[in-house]
Specification:
5-stranded mixed sheet; Alpha-Beta Plaits; 10-stranded mixed sheet; D-Maltodextrin-Binding Protein, domain 2; single chain; prephenate dehydratase activity; about 35% strand; alpha/beta
């Protein structure tokens, strides 16, 4: 049975995704995204699950940059789950939000709830934690008037009370989680896949007029639908970028080799980060 690692501790959205997507398996939490990815690379675990992108805050840059610059592990599946952020407090909290001195959570979670925090807790300070689960853990052991932003699982795991449900600014908030495995082995999830996707890493030979247009044209005239294109710095100097392109179809023996050949003829580098099923989960 597979050993599954995830961004922990208990009560994170990543843990919710893992619990929903996988039936059985040994599950192990890691304190940081790099630690989880390294554990897959070093074969301490078989599968790693890390956040990749949020519908409100965008790409989790640490995940993407670590996969590109540090450890090249293939993406073997994607899990998409709805994100419902709640305000969590100690069971004996008085109920007066003006007395809350600090709100703890992951930076993305706090950013997803700015309107609520601005309106109801304008004087509270924000303290960023490594995860929403860690924020709940901090609040559970604090004697001060503090609160956390997290999910229902975190409230249950750490004995907190949900003071206000669904405090996120936008109702259609989802997070994509990348499932990583060292040897591209398929994973068995608890439901059928909803779609398939291929992610590519593309580097340009140099910054010249029309370069990106030529790259996109290789997909466009083949009528290949791109769900995402994002540039990230190569970390080799200002103005040097790579592109992440998500194509809404599995890698095949005709279209993708044609794209690769066309781009390589332009001097571009093309790396397949993964071709994988996408699972829409209801948590």
């Amino acid at each position: 049975m597979a050993a599954i690692g995830y961004l922990g501790p208990r009560g994170t959205f990543t843990k919710m995704a893992v619990d929903t997507a996988f039936n059985g398996g040994e599950k192990q939490s890691f304190t940081t995204i790099p630690n989880c990815i390294d554990a897959v690379q070093n074969q301490q675990i078989d599968i790693g699950v890390v956040p990749l992108e949020n519908a409100i805050e965008g790409t989790v840059q640490l995940t993407l940059d670590y996969l590109v610059h540090e450890v090249r592990l293939p993406i073997v599946a994607e899990i998409v789950v709805p994100i419902k952020q709640h305000l969590l407090v100690a069971p004996d909290f008085s109920g007066d939000l003006t007395k809350v001195r600090t709100v703890y959570s992951h930076s993305h979670a706090i950013a997803q709830c700015h309107q609520f925090l601005h309106k109801h807790m304008p004087a509270a300070a924000f303290s960023f934690s490594s995860s929403t689960g860690k924020a709940a853990d901090i609040v559970s052991s604090s004697d001060e008037a503090v609160a956390a932003i997290g999910n229902r699982l975190a409230a249950h795991e750490y004995g907190l009370r949900i003071y206000q449900e669904n405090i996120h600014d936008y109702p259609h908030n989802h997070t994509r989680f990348a499932v990583l495995a060292k040897d591209k082995q398929p994973v068995n999830l608890s439901q059928e896949a909803d779609s398939e996707k291929t992610s590519l890493l593309i580097t340009l030979p140099s910054d010249y007029a029309g370069a990106l247009h030529q790259v996109l044209s290789a997909f466009a005239w083949r009528k290949m639908n791109l769900s995402k294109i994002e540039s990230r710095p190569m970390k080799t100097g200002l103005g040097n970028y790579f592109f992440i392109v998500d194509v809404n179809q599995p890698y095949d023996a005709v279209l993708f080799p044609g794209v690769r050949a066309e781009l390589e003829a332009l001097g571009c580098g093309v790396t397949v980060l993964g071709t994988y099923p996408v699972y829409q989960m209801d948590v």
